[in-house]
Write a structure and sequence with these properties.
Blueprint (H helix, E strand, L loop, with lengths): L7 H12 L2 H24 L25 H5 L1 E5 L2 E5 L21 H13 L6
Antiparallel strand pairs: 1-2
Helix pairs in contact: 2-4
Length: 128
Amino acid sequence: MGLRGDSKKLTTFAAKLRALPVTMAAAVASEAAPAMTGLTQGAYSSAQTVYGDARPRGVDGQPLTLHKTGATEAGLRFINVGTIVRCVLPNKYQRYLIRYGILPNGGMPAAWRAKLDTIVHAQKGPAL
């Protein structure tokens, strides 16, 4: 069972990222976006939440596949705009699927933190 992070960790991460030099923050953001996309799509295709837990069951008690057309999985991606990393939700209904753990909804997943720390360390910055 995955460990959920404290919701303040995302805010703390953003504040620490803002404290880095702009060039380093932009480099971290450009590497973090595809890494976070890969982690998110990997969790989605393995029927897990981004925290590593099993995906919640539907109202009928059956496991949810969330894979009718593949548009949701294909649309789960992160982009960087300068020093900001943001998620792109191209479908109207994707925001309602966040409750099923396709994206973080309360704290940064441990795997994401480890990956981001690796990226920052590779840029010769302090651990976030």
